[in-house]
Design a protein that fits this description.
single chain, about 55% helix, about 120 residues
Length: about 120
């Protein structure tokens, strides 16, 4: 019974993805924001290239997101960016053998073998 319940519930990375995605969806800009937002939105809509390096994955996925019947095109692309960021956070938690948080608070360092630490010791 426990094993079956464990398979139904998301792991820590699933919980981080759900919480982060919900937060990013609620806080997504309703239109074009500042900096590169307009350029990346226009590149996604027209399947053009943004400034170097071009961001081809974002442009292709942004085109798919822009076809959804939901708000402005910029809002749809902003939602895509939020979901992508939530997936990146879930990947960090999944990759961390200590599952993301230290007892003292803050993110656990990734260690010298895997990159720079996220929290000073």
């Amino acid at each position: 019974m426990r094993e079956r319940l464990r398979r139904l519930l998301p792991g820590p990375e699933g919980a981080v993805f759900a919480i982060a995605a919900a937060l990013y969806v609620v806080l997504a800009a309703p239109g074009v924001g500042w900096m590169d937002s307009g350029e990346l939105t226009a590149a996604a809509w027209s399947l053009g290239g943004a400034h170097p390096p071009g961001h081809p994955a974002h442009s292709l996925l942004g085109k798919l997101a822009s076809l959804a019947p939901l708000g402005e095109i910029a809002f749809r692309v902003n939602l895509l960016s939020g979901v992508a960021m939530a997936a990146a956070l879930a990947g960090v938690v999944e990759r961390d053998p200590r599952r993301g948080l230290r007892p003292g608070g803050g993110a656990a360092p990734l260690g010298p073998r895997r990159g720079a630490g996220l929290h000073p010791r």
